[in-house]
Amino acid sequence: IGFNTASLMFVNDQWGSGIADNFSDEFKNLGGIILDKESFLQSEKDFRTNLLKIKNNRPSVLMLSAYPDQVGIISKQVLDLGINVQLAAYRGSIGDETIELGGAATNNLIFLEEFDIASNRESTKRFTRTFKEKYNKNPNLFAAMGYDAYNLYVDAVKKCGESTDCIRDYFYSTKNYEAASALITFDEKGDVLKNLGLMKIKDGKFVPYE
Hints:
Radius of gyration: 19 Å
Number of strands: 10
Strand order of the largest sheet: 2-1-3-4-5-9-10
Shape: globular
Distance between the termini: 10 Å
Structural class: alpha/beta
Oligomer: single chain
Helix content: 40-55%
């Protein structure tokens, strides 16, 4: 979508660094240039030192591999420091906390997401409605994934009992499972295949990117 230089900020754990590495590899494979990578601890709240380094490099996009509250805080600090850059994030990095903490600074942030809370699929609408009734907030990706994993495992145990070979084969044979987060298909290696959608934040709401 038109970005040729990128900087990365990522939380320094297995999830955050893994996403940063994957993004970096793919971005370079597509001809882009990675200008810098800045890591931080999950407990950190002040990212100005990292951001000032990034500001000097003038990337066209800043990829955030962080948790929803951190993305909100970083977005606010980007605005406060007058950094002119497109913000982007990965699935699982965006939630209600992002907008609550970042406010207007999160406007136009783009992100990849496998859980489209606005989906018209009945399984997603039912899960979102029930979750909101119980917790008085919208579910994020991790809530949907936990719900899906639990239900898949329950279905497998109902069919297979204690047979671990049967449970494994049940998962591997699952195709287009109507889950809360997405349609789920397992490949021959046991990895889950899902469609990713490109989304953005607009006026405090999560909407499809156009």
